[in-house]
TrEMBL record:
Protein name stated in the entry: Sterol desaturase family protein
Broad class of enzyme this protein falls into: oxidoreductase
DNA repair among keywords: no
Organism expressing this protein natively: Shivajiella indica
Gene Ontology MF, one: oxidoreductase activity
Length: 312
């Protein structure tokens, strides 16, 4: 027990120092300044080349989403995630130790070239995320948490990191064992993390980009806008376009759906008029609202929406 309390203490102390360092000492390997730089960069693109020309530069929920961005990228780690995950990893290793297992590494890839390790980690992590994202839409309890992300009404770069902190725990838990089996955690790969942040920002941006033929591999603003539309086709009642960084999985498993560009499609979910508007209410909502819910996914099915052929 003492060991765990020490881990909790060290986690807070360590992460606090890390965050202070990140903020006050800019460098090339620094998440804080990369996040800020990418955000300003994508925002400038939105200002100079907007897709929805009438959307305000400070769109609806701009500041709320900006706060979510900082909270989910840094503050949640400081407040809870770092301590919880360090304790969980230690407890999990202790549990394995009971059975004489010292580590989970099953496939040794240390001898692979560096780019091969990056690629494997990236593909595996993204495929797990795609599956978790599908579950967030399918399992009613998980959908309650995921509603925060789908309560965006006007898309802009910062909507990328508007999500309930529980999603961090769900995604990271699902990724932990498979990644430990090939011998690393996501933290090891700075470049992958920055790349996925950039693509995620662009996916939510007010920009008309599809990356040409690369659209079959990379998720993009047009494809992801359809993930957020309020009215879904009746045969896809849980959702479409679940891709996070890669669109590949949606094309492989036939969950892709881009009937037309959809620039002005209404976004959200049925019943979102009743969804809370402030940060604190939104993150506590799934816990206080349990049991009296009305707006689960199947309600969003449209019986009238025609399916128009893809033209992009
Ligand atoms: Zn979703
Ligand atoms: Zn999204």
């Amino acid at each position: 027990m003492e060991k765990y309390i020490k881990i909790i203490g060290d986690s807070y102390y360590g992460y606090f120092n890390y965050l202070v360092n990140e903020m006050f000492y800019p460098s090339w390997k620094n998440y804080f300044w990369w996040l800020l730089g990418l955000s300003v960069g994508v925002w400038l693109l939105e200002i100079f080349f907007p897709w929805r020309k009438k959307q305000a530069i400070f769109r609806k929920d701009f500041w709320l989403d900006g706060f979510y961005m900082f909270f989910n990228y840094f503050l949640f780690s400081l407040i809870a995630y770092n301590a919880i995950s360090n304790v969980a990893v230690e407890a999990f290793n202790d549990f394995l130790g009971i059975f004489g297992i010292e580590n989970l590494v099953a496939i040794h890839i240390e001898s692979w070239p560096r780019w091969g390790q990056f690629l494997l980690l990236f593909l595996l992590a993204d495929f797990i995320q795609w599956n978790v994202h599908r579950l967030l839409h399918r399992v009613p309890i998980l959908w309650e948490f995921h509603k925060v992300h789908h309560s965006v009404e006007e898309m802009g770069f910062a909507a990328h990191l508007r999500f309930h902190w529980m999603e961090t725990i769900i995604y990271k838990s699902a990724q932990y064992i498979p990644l430990a089996m090939i011998g690393f955690g996501l933290e090891d790969f700075f470049i992958v993390h920055i790349f996925t942040t950039a693509i995620g920002h662009l996916n939510h941006a007010n920009l008309r980009i599809t990356y040409g033929p690369l659209k079959y591999i990379l998720n993009n603003p047009i494809m992801h806008l359809w993930h957020h539309v309020k009215v879904l086709p009746k045969d896809r009642k849980y959702g479409v376009n679940y891709g996070i960084t890669l669109s590949l999985w949606d094309y492989l498993f036939r969950t892709d759906y881009i009937p037309h560009e959809g620039r002005d499609e209404p976004l959200g979910f049925n019943g979102m008029e009743k969804f809370p508007k402030t940060f604190w209410q939104q993150v506590t909502y799934p816990f206080v609202k349990r049991g009296e819910d009305t707006s689960i996914r199947p309600d969003r099915v449209s019986l009238t929406k025609p399916v128009i052929k893809t033209k992009s």
